[in-house]
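Dear colleagues,

As part of the handover before I leave the project, I'm documenting each prediction I ran so the next person doesn't have to rerun anything. This entry is a single chain, and its sequence is reproduced below.
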Amino acid sequence: MDRTTIRDQFSKFLQHLAESLDISESRYKQAEERYQAVGNWLARDESIVAKYSPDIYPQGSFRLGTVIKPITDAEEYDIDLVCELSLTKDQLSQKQLKGVVGYEIKGYARANKMKSPPENGRRCWTLNYADGAQFHMDILPALPDGDSFRLFLENKGFSAAWTDLAIAITDNTHQNYERIDDDWLRSNPKGYAEWFKECMKVQFNARRMLLAESIRADVEKVPEYKVKTPLQRAIQILKRHRDIMFADDQDDKPISVIITTLAAHAYNNEADLLDTLVNIVDGMPRYIQTRNGVSWVPNPVNPTENFADKWQNHPQREVKFRQWLKQVRADLNTVLRSGNIRAIGEYLKPRLGEKIINEALQHFSKTNTGKAAGLVIGRTRPLTRFDVPHRQLPMWPLVLKGNVTVTGWFSRDGSRSQHFQSGDRLSKHCLLRFKAKTNISWPYKVYWQVVNTDEEARAANCLRGGFYDGIIEKGGRVRKEGTLYTGMHWIECFIIKNGVCVARSGEFVVNIK
């Protein structure tokens, strides 16, 4: 199998993985029917808000096509909705708007015998469903605010693109919540969705056209939610990785809007999901701005809003966000080095969820019969000399926090040890001694991975690719080996602390002639 085919197989596996994260078609339609039912209730003749032309529409991940299944069946996902009324800020207060919308939402809940009354939150009304729907709806009361918002941004010297879609929203902590005033919080979920779509326009249009051709329909008749670009798929994978990594740290968990915004900025309309994921993860940090010493992730449709505003008072959140990105990169590097689909699936289970990985493996196997079990994984870069199938994947989660370097000495026939560098050529039957130096604080464990290659080791049935404990000697961390077989071989040091790999050296190459 050529390199391109191998690499394509792994990208296909990622596609199956992302599809396994999707909510089902029935769940999507159920949610859509529910919020349309709420809209119909608000617009009925008896409704006290019907004369204000209520418009209820989704925002957030449901609108962007990046919603993912909950990790467990016991969890719910939220459907974020906007309830926009054709009123102006000089006609009523935020509290009055929240009240009239809430009056109708409560009536809807009673009429539909819902398990509990709607919850009155800071900004939204929340409807909880009791019939196994596995979701709840957050309904945000709002008014049109395009003209006011356009003037606001123009006066600040910012672009006014998409401002005609802006809204003013309720917030019961706002200083003007109870009185009629022009000062409301602003939002622009429709504008953000249009900006997001613009970032992936090339791939979105191409895929929508292909889907239309496959079902012999006009492009306009293909529902937008059925089209998934590599950007949307990559965000789904990133969100699941985040959810599992921060399962026990909800306060510092990176928020979805920051992930989505930075990913969209970093996306270059790559057609391949693997390319997309790698390039996005590498590119996201470049779009974190600094303004007067403060980290900024500006809202692309309201540059005066900082999505990362909580980082200033909670600096550990930025630290953990960057650590998370570093962890994603480390995990990608691990699975891209070598291995097969099954091995990579096992590695990804604790990072993305066992159920999801099993589903992806099952779907992949059905479409790649006879290839999945032993498939060598491709990568975005060309295959390298280190990509050999018998090289084992690291058995620990990688959270790289420090450095470790390796130096080597060799001796022959009892002679004095001499220093040698990675890549130097040595003769057979030498004694080798490797020493690691790390800035990780004690205590920790040291493991060495030894990999040999070439026909001589293969013929002797002595190919190696596993891990070995290191010997802790006074003043160093040491591994001793010998040069038995010709070819290119290498050793790599891993520092393990509390069951996590916190540093790795990279390959130290030994060429034996």
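Residues 29 and 35 are 10 Å apart (CA to CA). Confidence is low (pLDDT under 50) at residues 1-5, 370-384.

All the best with the project,
I.
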